[in-house]
Amino acid sequence: MNKAGIIDAVAKSLDCSKSQADIYVNTILETVKEGVRDTGKVQLMGFGTFEARQTKAREGRNPRTGEPMMIAASTRCAFKVGKQFKEMLCAKTPEPEAVVEEAPTLEAPTLETPAPAAPAMETPTLEPAQTEVAETAEVAETEEVVEPTTSQWA
């Protein structure tokens, strides 16, 4: 939900025009911003606390170049969820009652048929005439071992 959605919900809830709801929502948001700026803390019971927090200056790195650089001290706004809001967010659905495991029934066991074995690879054999030629030429052949490739998509 965004700001327009909140304005629509307020208009529907209060049965007023969207322009009036816009004024109400903007007034509340401006009041919260001014409160955090002036007092450092705005607490809305049941909802949460907006608080201004100081960060110290620290050394960081430029993500493009990797060079060290100083990050200046600053003030940031933090929000801490209130107890009621947190309970509402973390509300779990009721756990189903424990299911008692039933004793196994006596059914005929189903046997899975084994997958057929892959056909055996035949190794090529050299005929006697080819072996003599290879020996006389003294050619050392190196066989490349080709491993089966596995697909990423399998």
Mean pLDDT value: 79
Q: What is the name of the CATH class of the domain at 40-88?
A: Few Secondary Structures
Choose one word for the global shape. Answer: extended
Order of strands, main sheet, comes to: 1-2-5
Radius of gyration: 37 Å
CATH architecture of the domain at 40-88: Irregular
Explain what this protein looks like in three dimensions:
The protein has helices at 3-14, 18-39, 83-89, 128-137; strands at residues 41-44, 48-55, 58-61, 68-71, 74-81. Among the domains are: 1-39; 40-88, HU Protein, Chain A, CATH 4.10.520. The longest helix is centred in the N-terminal third of the chain and has 22 residues, at 18-39. By secondary structure, the chain is an alpha+beta fold. It is extended and about 85 Å long. Strands 1-2-5 form a 3-stranded antiparallel β-sheet. A two-stranded antiparallel ribbon has the order 3-4. α1 crosses α2 (18-39).
